Amino acid sequence: MLAQTQPRKAFFSPLIGRIESQMQRLMRYLTPTYGQKLTLLASVPLILAVAAIAALVALQARALADREISTLETQLIAAKKAELRNYVTQARNGFYFIYGSAAPDDDTAKAQVAQILAAMIYGEEGQFFVYDYHGNALVSPRETDRINRNWAGQRDSAGTPVVDALIHTARGGGGYHSYLWPKPSTGQEAQMISYVTAFPSWGWAVGTGVFIDDVLGSVASARAEVETSVRRTFVYIGAITMAALLAVFGTGMLINLRERRLADAKLKKLTQRVFDAQEEERGRVARELHDGISQLLVGVRYALDNARRRLERGDPAADVPLSKGIEGLREAITEVRRISRDLRPGVLDDLGLGPAIKTLAKDFQTRTGISCNFSTVVFRNRVDDDAKIALYRIAQEALTNVERHAGATEVAIDLRGHRRGATLRIIDNGRGLSTDDHNRAPGLGLRNMQERMEQLGGSLRLTDVPGGGTSIKASIPLTHMLPPESTPALKVAAQ
Q1: pLDDT band, very low/low/confident/very high, at 459 (cuts 50, 70, 90)
Q2: Which of 105, 386, 417, 456 lies 20 to 30 Å from 173 when distance is taken between CA atoms?
Q3: How far apart (Å, rounded) are the C-alpha atoms in residues 442 and 462?
């Protein structure tokens, strides 16, 4: 048995090897190259963009067509209604001299009016009908089998009340009612609009109706044309997209076949450089522009919203928040220009948070003339970058609010670390928080400060100071404190 098995293995081994070789070759053909992957990566957004554009065009075209068709339908139905009302008015004027001089129980006058209405047949389908308030049909020239029969409670095939609704409308002063009704010429149901009025002394509901199946047919035809146009647009866009994709794929394949190795090497280096540059730029911009001008823009937004609401109310003082918004935009432009020159204070990276806030306090005192005292406990710059930026921006915003709104003469800033993290406290001797809404406008900036601290997992507290003034306390948790650096003596001992 063993001797027989070995020749079989020797026979099948070359065949298995050839099959494996063919499978590997097939997998190489099916596996996309780097250039093909890039081409596919470029094509997928193109397909998605074209699909989104096509969908948007279709939606806008369909919405526009629906509005136009609805307007057309409304106009056509309004014309039908006006025609019906004119018919009823003319008929009423024709025999009103009989009705006006007749008594409620004058059967002779009723018979004369009924004869007049029965003779008023117009068009192929037009007629006048009369029902008494009990639902009895008195006049129906094209459907004589309905005369002298009670039709109270009658509904059309869709369940819409007919006679009762007509009587109710007439007793309410007259109006229109739409329902399904068999056409005398074909016997098929179609949509009808009737106008009915009342002869109250006789207890009659008199009206006439017109079929609007022609209007509905025109509307349906217009909608079908819109759908055809939308589908045609989709076909055109799809054809253009396929041609563009074929061109992209063809060009990519030619480039890949001619310069595969060189292009792949250059593309890898370029891609890595682009990614590195993007990440570096995003990090730099994210660190500085996240809240550099957001408080100004938020203030502008609220000022403009306030102006809009005042304008809607007709408030003559609407120009006040509008002016504030314009001033805020001017300040935002100035802030953008400043940030473009120096997005990040160099002292914050070179010397740390304490010296940066101290410099900020000195500049504030020099610019405003408000006394600004800064104190800190040295903790060797143990605050991480996110916390540095947050506390610096809070101090910056707080001083800005003091300058603009507090009316203070003194400001005290204290920065220190402790077992639970670090705390920045800013106290002024200004108006405080217990003022009117006008003076509390800086709360918009304070709200932004609150959001910044929440992102760090810290807290922000605003309180009134006894005797006047405001206290702002910003605390960051211990997780944003870096471990202390080892001193040279400790390093030597460790060695």
Answers
A1: confident
A2: 105
A3: 12
Which residues lie below 8 Å from residue 293, measured CB to CB, with a gap of 6+?
332, 335, 336, 339
**Helix/strand/coil (H/E/C) assignment for every residue in 402-445:** HHHHHCCCEEEEEEEEECCEEEEEEEECCCCCCCCCCCCCCHHH
Q: Which two tokens stand for residue 154?
A: 């009658």
Per-residue pLDDT tens for 114-143?
A: 888 888 888 778 888 999 999 899 988 888
Q: Are 65 and 222 in contact (CB under 8 A)?
A: yes
- What is the number of alpha carbons within 13 Å of residue 199 lying toward its C-beta? 30
Asked if 375 and 427 touch (Cβ cutoff 8 Å), the reply is no
d(CA 423, CA 440): 24
d(CA 165, CA 197): 12
- Cα distances (angstroms) measured from residue 48 to each of 122, 198, 235, 352, 387: 59, 62, 16, 48, 41
Distance CA 279, CA 302 (A): 33
The DSSP output letter for 132 is E
- Its pTM stands at 0.38
Residue 110 CB coordination number (10 Å): 20
Residue 458 to residue 354: CA distance in whole angstroms: 19
| Token duo for residue 249 | 């794929």
CB 459 within 8 A of CB 453: yes
Cα–Cα distance, 148 to 140 (Å, whole number): 10
Rounded Cα gap, residues 291 and 453, in angstroms:
12
Q: Which residues contact 444 (CB under 8 A, 6 or more apart)?
A: 295, 298, 299, 302
Residue 77: how many other CB atoms lie within 10 Å: 18
